[in-house]
Amino acid sequence: MEKDIGAIxxxxxxxxxAGLILEKGVGEEFFLAKETLKTxxxxxxxxxxxxxxxxxxxxxxxxxxxxxxxxxxxxKISINxxxxxxxxxxxxxxxxxxxxxxxxxxxGTNFNKDDLIFKxxxxxxxxxxxxxxxxxxxxxxxxxxxIEIPEKxxxxxxxxxxxxxxxxxxxxxxxxxxxxxxxxxxxxxxxLFAAVFKETDGFKNISQGALRLAAxxxxxxxxxxxTENIFNQDKTPVFWQMLGRALARTxxxxxxxxxxxxxxxxxxxxxxxEPKEEFLLAILKEISRTVSSQTFSLILWQTPSxxxxxxxxxxxxxxxxxxxxxxxxxxxxxxAELQTKNxxxxxxxxxFKTFSEAEIQLRKALKSAxx
Length: 371
Prior knowledge:
Layout: H1 5-13, E1 17-22, H2 28-43, E2 47-51, E3 76-80, E4 88-95, E5 100-106, E6 117-121, E7 127-131, H3 137-141, E8 155-158, H4 165-175, H5 180-184, H6 188-199, H7 208-219, H8 224-232, H9 237-248, E9 250-253, E10 258-263, H10 265-271, H11 277-290, E11 296-309, E12 315-324, H12 328-338, E13 346-352, H13 355-370
Parallel strand pairs: 1-2, 1-7, 7-8, 10-11
Antiparallel strand pairs: 3-6, 4-5, 9-10, 11-12, 12-13
């Protein structure tokens, strides 16, 4: 499913329809990259289905740049007739100004309309683009109730690696040979510029390839000012209040070259904030800038478990941790120790039952990474 650009171009050129699937829980940069590819495929008049159907919360702020859906993937309904009960002599199709009609002639028995079984078949596309952090076929299979998954040869993975997600999407778009003037008249450059901006933390952790892409997108008319203004909207008074509270709960451990921030459920309740991962990663980035002398910055937070309940039907809490570092070698080593992945300079660990359990395990992993 990891394919070279030539194979991907061939799949697109031979596909009249495509599915765009966003893995649950991935960040805003993935959504922006998906919307960029959607814009490009619509320019090629490809019929599309985009999943999940629910619009991510951050989509609202990009609404003015999103392309409206084009031609939908055709839907099919099957009408089933019991063969043994009704020997069919003839089938005819007819239509008038108001209805399409299927005329069924059966032999030797009266037809009961209640025996008809109507089934809506799942939409089927010629190919699927799956935007994910780490490919897991089981996660893709979760969408089997919404779309018919094609053979693996027609599934294209869009996930970060040596290149950002934005770079991978632009490589696909560039291979399709669009005229620059067509791209300039669309919102495609701005959407992809925003994806790269988000994925590289405002161009603070950027490779030469991503930097060249950002410059190219600006040449194509990407709206840099609008992008920065939209992202700045994220930092509301609640954000700054929680950042102040987080800094007050931050301690430095020189031996482990790290800063530690702990946020309990009461901290979130006090400021009316929700313990969402993206919100906490933004806070962690600000903390790492403030305590820049340390190799690692950690933030640990308490959040309700999504699936654990005690016998009294009370929701249990669990502890998660996010760790940020500019030292990719040590962060990769730490990720291996914690059996997680380095995602653009950050990694996530958990769940833990208590703050104490989390701290013990994280300190043990840090010692291995440093020494």
